[in-house]
């Protein structure tokens, strides 16, 4: 097997990744930018590739280019740098922390792990308040994340339901880099703003506790705790302690009520908050299954609560994308391959169906027929005639077998497999995938029709290549030319090929249809 081309890597990307705008950067720091994740009041977030990462599933990062009103004065930059340094040392799975940042860049940026999930604001708006177990997990998780932030001297300052991401492993506190100014927060919704912040005060741990109380109240009841209205009306109710917690899980009422105290001194510390919420959970679970060996720590309990209560937050599917790292050998293919909405399930379904279909197709008698008739005159690569080989077979194209990577005919080796592909273990590399297939015949040569129909799941190209068949299965549609171009990059590929229906003859057979086989 030849090694995979060092010029390409695969990355699992969200299926609905938006394309870049013409002015968007193609690189940010060490990252290759793939598409836009979104734009908020503090900057634009891009999906980007960390080329140093060794696994497809970890390569995707989110890079935020900061452009926020709070950073308009040059004095803001040293403070930003200090805050990002502190954040980089935060050790909590509940906080999205920077992987890298550059505050000298213009504009500054920070990278963070890519997290697939749903904002708490969307989740509650769509489904209503959370059940008690999940609410307790959320409340404990947020309080733990905030307490670790505070221990590093960082008050979040802008916490609200849209800054809480629900992901399959638990809730995450996002957007910690820049605390919104009170002015900006007033515009974003006074509900989450403590009275002292509404009056223009700085972000403090106590103001984060207030935000925690308001978020937990919203998540538990599906309603705004101070009701609807203009920011001033809401702020007035907050200043008077006029909240409505009816419908909130009974055990949580006292601690949430105290967190919403108008006076910062009247609010509990996060340690008290965590203790109170854990006590509610333990009282409802009789402490069953508590770990042996003394009183569990807050973190142990949080882990246990998340394990028990955090269900039904599934990560959205991601789809494979092949990224070219440097100049291309041909200009037919776009530098990067971007997949569009809806293709994830269908692409994976097609691949699964393709693998299944091929295993059905290749019964034992077919396998025997796959053994190519290597003639004495052509020892390197035989060209089986149309009457002694099936019209469709699974083949390996290994550029190591090919003398000239730009010109055909193309050497292919029939392959098959006895076992089912192992799924759910991440996307295998080209060569690892190819190694799962056994040789089932002698190498032979074929030409590839320039307009051959190509269905691919992994080496897909531009969005306008998307293809849906009559049964709703789909993937990307390329041509034989694109496939030849792909082969010239050097990867080993496993494909199902169909030859032209031709009269028996001497020359290499012509491939008119190619379906890439891949799985994860
Ligand atoms: N680490 C991440 N992983 C995946 N997507 C992310 C990540 N960080 C941000 N995003 C996405 O990027 C988009 C913009 O996020 P951002 O936090 O900048 O904006 P916002 O929260 O909408 O507004 P604001 O800047 O006012 O907080 C959102 O759709 C968000 O889900």
From TrEMBL:
Coiled-coil residues: none
Listed Acidic residues bias regions: 369-380
Positions of ATP binding: 64
Superkingdom of origin organism: Bacteria
Ranges of residues in domain Protein kinase: 31-280
Enzyme Commission number, as recorded: 2.7.11.1
Transmembrane segments: 337-358
Top enzyme category: transferase
Annotated region (Disordered), positions in chain: 369-390
GO molecular function: protein serine/threonine kinase activity
Keywords in alphabetical order: ATP-binding, Kinase, Membrane, Nucleotide-binding, Serine/threonine-protein kinase, Transferase, Transmembrane, Transmembrane helix
Protein name: non-specific serine/threonine protein kinase
InterPro entries: Kinase-like_dom_sf, Prot_kinase_dom, Protein_kinase_ATP_BS
Organism: Nocardiopsis codii
A Pfam family assignment: Pkinase
